[in-house]
Amino acid sequence: MAKVYMMCGKICSGKSTHAAELKTLHHAVVLSVDEITLALFGQDAGDLHDTYVERAEQYLYEKSVEIIHEGISVILDWGFWTKEERLHARSFYSSKGIECEFHYIDVSPHEWARRLEKRNLEITEGKASAYYVDEGLAAKFGSIFEVPAKSEIDVWIKE
C-alpha cells in the first residue's frame, strides 16, 4: 500500500540524499519544495521566498494525496523544521487514512558545517542546483529548527 515518507532535518543535513535512496527502495516519487522554488525563482525569490515556500508546500500536500491514491508512495523532501509542521503533516495524512512515516536526519554541528561548505562550493562551481547558505542564513535556519522528540520520528538516522 502506498504511503508518504517525510524527511525531517536541518537544511543540508542529507535529506535529499536519503530521499533519493528511499525513492529507489520503494519506487516512490520525490516531491521537493526547493526543486519547485528554485526552478521558478532561482536564488532570487527575495522577500517573497517564505510565501512561495508555503504555496509550494500546500500544492505538494494536495498533489501527494493524488499520487498516493494512484498507488504510488511519495517522499516529501522538505525540512519539517518545527513541531507544529510535523503535527500538521501527520494530522493531514491521518485524516485521509494515509500511512505516513517521518525520517529524521540527525547530524552533528561539525558535520553540518562541513556539508554546508561542500554544498556552497558545489553551487559556486555550478555543480549543484540548491540554495546557497551563507553564515547568516545558516544561523537563521539553525535557530528555527526544533529538534524532534523521539516520539515524533519513525526512523532516526544519526550521521
Spatial order of the strands forming the largest sheet: 2-3-1-4-5
**Count of separate DSSP helical elements:** 6
CATH topology: Rossmann fold
Number of strands: 5
Shape: globular
Give the overall pLDDT as a whole number: 92
What's the architecture in CATH terms? Answer: 3-Layer(aba) Sandwich
Alpha-carbon distance between the two ends = 29 Å
Question: What is this structure's SSE topology?
Answer:
Elements: E1 4-8, H1 15-26, E2 29-32, H2 33-41, H3 49-69, E3 74-77, H4 83-95, E4 100-106, H5 109-124, H6 135-144, E5 155-158
Parallel strand pairs: 1-3, 1-4, 2-3, 4-5
Helix pairs in contact: 2-3
How would you describe this protein?
This protein has 159 residues and is of the alpha/beta class. It has one domain (4-158): P-loop containing nucleotide triphosphate hydrolases (Rossmann fold, 3-Layer(aba) Sandwich). Helices cover 51% and strands 15% of the residues. It has 6 helices and 5 strands; from the N terminus they run βαβααβαβααβ. The chain has helices at 15-26, 33-41, 49-69, 83-95, 109-124, 135-144; strands at 4-8, 29-32, 74-77, 100-106, 155-158. A 5-stranded parallel sheet has the order 2-3-1-4-5, sandwiched between helices. Helix 2 crosses helix 3 (49-69). The longest helix is centred in the middle third of the chain and has 21 residues, at 49-69. The radius of gyration is 15 Å and the shape is globular. The two termini are 29 Å apart.
